Every structure is written in structure tokens, then in C-alpha cells.
Amino acid sequence: MNTLPYFDPALMIALPLLAAFLIPLLKRASERIPKFVPLLILGFNLYESIALLPHSLQKPIVVIIAAWQPPLGINLTIGPLGNILALIISLVGFVVAVYNIKFVLEEPGEKYYMLFLLMITGATGMVLTGDLFNLFVFLEITSISAYALTAFIRDRNGAEAAFKYLLIGSISSTMILLGIALIYASTGTLNMADIAQKIGQVDSRITLAALILMIVGFGVESEIFPLNGWAPDAYSQAPTPVGAVFGGIVVKAGVYGLARVIYTIFSFQGVFHFILIMGIITLLMAEMSALRQKQIKRMLAFSSIGQMGLVLIALGLATQNAVAGGLFQMFNHALIKPLLFLSAGYLVYYSGSKDIGDLDGMGKIKPVTSFFFAFGAFALMGLPPLNGFWSKLIIISETVKSGYIVLAALALTGSIIEAVYYLRVVGRLYFKSPEEHVKTKYVHASAVVAMSILAGLALFAGLFPDVILHYLQPAARELMDKTQYIQAVIAIK
Amino acid sequence: MIYYIGAFSLILIGIYAVLVKRNLIKIVIGLSLVDAGVHLLLIAIGYIKDKTAPIFSNPSLSAGDMVDPVPQALVLTAIVIGVAVTALALTIVIRLYDHHKTLNINKIRELKW
Amino acid sequence: MRKVFAMLFLAIIGFYLFNTFALIPFGKNKMNADVAASYLNSGVQKTGAVNIVTSIVVNYRGFDTLGEVTVLFLAATGMGALLFRKKPMQRSRQNASVIVKTGARILFPLIIILGVYVFVHGHLTPGGGFQGGAIIASGFLLMFMSYRTYKVNHKVLSLFETFAGTSFVLLGLFGLIWGTSFLANILPFGEANTLFSAGIIPLIYIAVGIKVGSELTAVLDTMLKTVK
User: Fold this and answer.
1) How far apart are the first and last CA of chain C?
2) What ipTM did this prediction achieve?
3) How does it sit in the membrane (chain B) (predicted)?
4) What is the pTM of this model?
5) B2-107 — its CATH code?
6) Nearest 10 degrees: CA dihedral of A413, A417, A420, A424?
7) Cα gap A403→A47, rounded to integer Å
8) Residues of chain C contacting residue B87, judged by C-beta atoms under 8 Å apart
9) Chain A CB contacts of C158 below 8 Å
């Protein structure tokens, strides 16, 4: 396989920052430029993460920053997992940026693009960095831009949702800081590989407390059950593309942080059962709540939480196949949830109401948007030729293999509930008679392009799941076996 | 040890304010208190008895006379992040006040909490 | 009732956490030979800055500082977006008395100079870009409080912000082009303990100081304008 030339991976973070700082200046040149900046930068990131992939699959790439060897300086450690997630993040970010071109925005538009670009940069930084405190800093970049974007439509409920999100988010990030304090005090280092090496000698009471603090902290972004109260409000009140990015990117970065902490840094045996239980509770609670929702975006938000519950189950099983299945599920979710959000955004725009009840008969008036929504719904609930089927199949069969028959049955129940409420919406779209007062506007070309890219990739992943799994297996191996990760960083020294 | 106790008191008072107080401004103050507590704790962890600040301003100082510099650097970063979060929280409070003309959180709940 | 619950809940959490932290000895030297000690032992020779905290913040962990600057930038941007109004708002402060006004006018340049001093000498004395920037913003706050009509030009402020932010990233990129890695030092260290020493550290701190000063000033100005 001939490889593409690649640049220093630090550019994947430096260039977006540079661009975000420059946007106010560019806006003075022309009002239209800021729109295209995220497109350009995320296109670069996409290219870069594709070019890096063959290298990182062989062994983790360690990028030194400020010319200091780890553990003295901060370094980026790009293993298969980080690289694949960076690829997903850049891809979804790029697609949403395409959608953004024609998205109707309130003033001040250029600030929206700055926040949007920085949110994606924060998530990219989270999955690439090899330093625990740096992970915290990037988590804050992601979440602060997320708070601001949640309230971006300056209405009553937006501010309320943002305040709720900020309250939960900032308390939990304080918890991460406390955990970092414990870890630094007992190991004397902040480099993740170095910590992983030294954590064995630390008093187990300290590790346990630090682990709990970290799980609470990352649990907010990854929507674990008691900490996900912010999600439905934030998803439904934020502008549509932002909701798509929450589901497609922010959650993925949160789960990455969680996985990195529980697998690489701590690998504490008892915790996997805990994650498993939390996963199944999260799944069931979310699917039950989704069933009761009247607003389409809230329903999508709860379904997103449910999907993360499934990923947590896979992570809690802690076998390589299960983890690969969980990553596959994350990959699928990252493609489909933005698709659903973007199409639902247009459906909401046409009907002028956020309620599911007002979407009757949209399939006849708006065939394109409705088709994409239905496609996404089928893919997410796991209809056989589509991608959601394979990841759910892997996770549930691995659950059975590990001997948790009851859990497998519960997870299956969750999936069935999911199918019920998605089919209900799709049924309304196609089999009810439309109402009169529907806006007759066509979907913008940019939105169609964005949604077709997502749908096409989802179809590809469904038809050729082995190709995707071929890349996901090394990533799962990286999580299961941390020695290679540690070796790569230590070898630099 | 007194620093640990002080830091934990700050953190707990802050979380208490967030949980119990109904006034948005008081909740934001609670958040800042939690932040301050964690920063104090980090600094306390880096403290070494009878040692001085890690600045070689005087040729007679040697590396053995200094406290751990890393927590101080981390706290510098964490303070700025705390300031940013507080500023944004206050902005959102201003917006909430604009819409609802009240700071009482019980009267604002329109979304399901 | 909820107060009692909250207290009980916090007492349990606090007790558990405190017991855990009590396992970490207070005031003992627990510096690991690896990281913290090598910062202290070789920091001055290898970065040229006598203030080790500065050398960690700007050089060893410079990437964090870039993130931190971004966080502040985000807060200012988010605030500008959320408080955006079509018609500009005014400050509602009453005019201050003559004594306050005169005092503010005398103090303002001194405060600005102090702020600049603090961030220019960040590698020599306690202080640095963030502290200096905060001092500058406090000088502007004094002017806002005492003069109702005192205005700052937001375009100029955002120009400063952009200039400072891009120069930080560009300094990093120069390190990538002429040095070995992003944010690597490309300038000579000079003689330690003098103003022109420590390579790119003072340059970065000057950029950070300008950025923080202009950002915080913009934030204060936006927040104070609440009346139509």
C-alpha cells in the first residue's frame, strides 16, 4: 500500500486554532469567508488523519511538542484508536461544515464558525494527546464551546439548557482535576503512558478514588446514566448542526476519554463490571425515555444516550471482539446520528414545529429529506443490510459469549424499544396524510451533499463490515493491551 | 494538613451552594468556590515544608530549596479555565434574567429538569 | 429537607475523599526524580528562564498554555455571541465623584505600565502573561467605573486579540519549521536572569499578556453594558 505524504500531526490542532484566531480578521475582508474556513481546515484534518492511518496502525506515532521528551514535555500519542477517532471526528466535522454553508444563521455568524471549529479542535486534541492534564484542557475547550453553542439561538430555553449543561459539566470537570491531583501526587507524572507504568505501585485506595473521580468527570460527556440530564435539552435547543456534532463528535471524545482512563491508565479489574451495569442501565433508561418523547430532537438525544449505553456494555465486557464491536457501534453512530439530526432539522423547519405529531405525511411532500431520515432510522435500529446491524450483532453475541445471558436479553429489549419508536416516526412520515400549511422550499444542495456522504458511508459500512473491522481490531487491541502504547512512548526517551 | 481541610471545606461549601441555593448568582459563586478549593488543594499537594518558591532569583538558591513547581503551573492553567467558565456562566445568567426577569431557579424551569 | 440530604450526601463524599487525600503526606518531599526534580535541576540551563513555573507553563507544557489561551478566547467569543444585540447597549453607571475621576486618571497609566512590566518580566519574577493581562484589564475596569462615557473600540481590541493569538501559534509553527517540533525554542537563551534571555518565552508571554488584557477588557465592557 503506497502511503500519502503526511505533515507533522501537531498541525491538526495548531492550524484550526490559527484559523479560529484569524476569523475575525477575515470577516472584515468579506462576510462570506468565515463560512468556508472550517471546511478548508477540517478538509486538511481529514486528509492528515487518512494519511497517518497506515503508519499509526503499525505502531503508535509519538509526536513531541516543544522539543521535550516525554514525560518532561507534552506529547501527542497517536495510536490506531486515536487516529481512527480523529478520522471520524474530522469526517463528521467536514460533513457538518458542508451542511453549514447554507444553514440559516442568526447574527453574529462568524462567532458561530469560530465556536464550531474550536469545538471540533478540542475533540481532536482529546483523542490525540498523550498527556492527562492536556486531555483535561482539551475537554474544557470542547465543553466550553459546547455550552456557548447550546445557547447560540438566543431564546428562553436555549439559555436554560446551556446553564444546566454548564452546571453539570463544570462540576464534573472539577472532579477530573481532583483525580489528576491525586494521580500527580502519587505518581509524580502526567504523561499517560508513564502513569500507566507506575500506577501499579500506588496504594489501591488512591487509585480507586482517582478512578471514580475520572469516571464521573468523563461520564458527563459520554452520557452515562445519572450524569446525562443535560443531553436532551442541549441537543434539542442547540442549532441543528450543533446537535449533530454533539451526537457525532463530542460524545465520541467523551467515550474515548473514558476508555483511555479505564483501560490504559488504570486497568482496574472490578471497574469493568461497574461499567457493564452502568451501560445496561443507561441503555434501558434512555430507550424508555425516548419512547415517551413528543419532540423529535429530544427523542434523537435519548436514542443517542441509548447507543452510548450499548458502547459502554461493549467496553465493560473487556474482550477484544466486544471492544471492536463497541468501536464499530461508535463509528456507525457517528455517521448516522448526524444524518438523522440534519434531516430532522429540515423536517422541523418545514413543519414549523418540533413535535413528532406535526410531521405527518412528510414523506409525500418532502421525499428527499424523509428518505434520509428513514434511511438513518433503519440503519440505527439495525436492519440487516445496514451498518447498525453488524455492530449490534457483535456486541450482543459477545455478551452472550461472556455468559451474561440476562444482559444480552436486556440489550436486545432496548434495541426493540428503539425500533418501535423509530418506526413510529417513519410510519407517520409515510403513512399519514399531510397537513396543508407546509413551507414549500427545497432542500439546499449543500445539505443534500452532506447527507448523501453520511448515508453513502453508512451503506458502505453495512455492505462491507469486514473492511471497517479490519481497521477497528488494532484499535481494540490498543485498548486491551497497553504495553505497546507504553512502549511507544518510553522508546522516545 | 490545615490546607487540606480548608480546601475540602471550600469544595464542599461550593457543591452545597450549587445543590441547595435557588439563586443563579449564588450557584455561580458556588462553582467558583469549588474551583478555588481544588486549586488550593493542588498547591497544597506541591508544598514542601521549609522550601521556597521555584525562582532562581538569587545565586545562593539551589534546586533542593524549592517546592514542586508542577502543581503551580497546573493551577495557573486551571485558574484561567475557571475564569472562562465563570464568565460564560454569568453571561448565561444575564440571558436568563433578560428572558425571565428573575434569578430564582424554581421559576425558570420550563424544560424538564 | 433537601438541605439535610445535601449535607449528608456531601458529608459522605467529603469524608471519603478526605480520607483518600490524607494518604498523601502533606509538606513532605514527594517529588519524583523523573519530572519535577529534573525541571528544578536542569530548567535554568535548558530553557534559560530563572522562574521555573514560567518555564513549565510556557516551554515544557507550552501546549497546555495554547489550550488555555484558547479557552479564554472561547469564553470571550461565546460571551460576544450570547450578548449580541442589534442596537448597542450603554453602561448604566452614575458618574463618579471628582476625586475618584482624578484618581483614576492618574492611576490608569501606572496600572497599564505595571501590567506590561509583569508580563515582560514573566521569566524573571513571579508573574507572567495572564497576571499582567489581568492587571491591564483591571486598569480599564477602573476607567469604566469612574467615567460613564469612557469607551473602548472593540474593533481595535479584536485586532490586538487576533494579532496576539496568531503570533503565539506562528511562534509555534516557526519552531516546527526551523526547529525540531511544534513550539520548540528557536532563539538563543541569552544570559539567565537578564531581561533578554530564555529564548521564545518572553515573546510568548508578551503575546499572551496582550491577548488576555484585550480579551478581559472586552469581556468587562460587554458585561457592563446592560441598559438600552
Assistant:
1) 42
2) 0.92
3) Multi-pass membrane protein
4) 0.92
5) 1.10.287.3510
6) 180
7) 42
8) 75-76, 79, 219, 223
9) 24
